[in-house]
Please model this.
Amino acid sequence: MSKTNDKQKKLMILGGSRYALPVIEAAHKLGIYVITCDYLPDNYAHRFSDEYCNVSIIDKEATLEAAKRLMIDGIVSFACDPGVVTAAYVAEKMGLPNVGPYESVCILQNKGRFRSFLAEHGFTVPTARQYVRGDEADPSLFHWPVIVKPTDSAGSKGVTRVDRPEDLPAAVSHALDFSHCDEFIVEDFITQKGFSSDTDCFSVDGELRFVSFNNQRFDPDCENPYAPAGFSWPSSMSEEHQEELKNELQRLLRLLGMRTALYNIECREGTDGKAYLMEVSPRGGGNRLAECLRHATGVDLIEAVVRDAVGLPLGDVSQKPYRGHFAEVILHSEKPGIFESLETDPSLAENIVERDLWVEPGDAVGGFSAANESLGTLILCFDSEDRLVEVMQNVRKYVHVNVK
Model:
């Protein structure tokens, strides 16, 4: 544990997963003292922070008490969905820099409230209803098939597509297994045109400064076909819909009074010719999306998050062009087993920007039912879109996760 001095700023990071590492690194480069918090002392990121605080990050009052005792200067929940509301609550109570009003963050973080807000303010939104444990969803309200998901989880946990009304109860039970607040949402399944988008954007004083769209890719053969298995930039989404979504996102941020923040945004084009904002969460996305964007554009959104959280000057956050055709492969196993090795085709050698493997031979691995079962990532850069498409459409030809 490092020692701090009276002048050194303190940043509290909620959550201790690997996704906190770039935030810790950015903070340390700026000379900031880092405190990581959750109720799991053995979580990976804690070994890299200056101090660990054992507190449940979904317990707002306990986290606030700890933050006051530790006299923090800022708080973030980066790529950690359960801590986003708590971080906003603590920041508001302590008068620290905040991504936006606490109530607005609560709306964004609850899928049911978010859908209702969008509908109330004239955004394009699928038919959706929010329920609590014990409620029975009325199948006649929806246009089948539907998606059932917890209102308060991320990483595709608890998400099921349901094609028949008789299968709805099992999907609801599955969703509730992953809900902290015993709530679930049922909504029309939006058949997408092309690829959906799941990537990060940034606002400064409520004004969008950096917007990105990508192609989100899935593995239909893994345990959860809705867990993202890859991404690529730029997006193939129509320029018209990208502009529409950018304008609608800006309108949303103004309505909610959002301030300076990094957002993980999921959106898509439907085969109905409409563009949908599916999720807008005021946090960095998992799967190292902000790190990919740093490689792709040179814009360091992670450093900007850290600077703003502790009240340092933000620096340059502005739209920059992509410096090539970038992709990320989420390494995973299609079935549970024992990890043996990772092999990449020799033809990919010059395209690999970063190889980050999180498991070792002999480790037990799952069948990729959610993002937390990722085994690591590959970040790739290609000179042409054709080469990117060829590799990403045939990932198993180029990337082999060997499991026995």
Remarks:
- The chain has three domains: 10-96, 127-188, 197-403.
- DSSP finds eleven helices and 20 strands in the chain.
- The mean pLDDT is 95.
- The two ends are 39 Å apart (CA to CA).
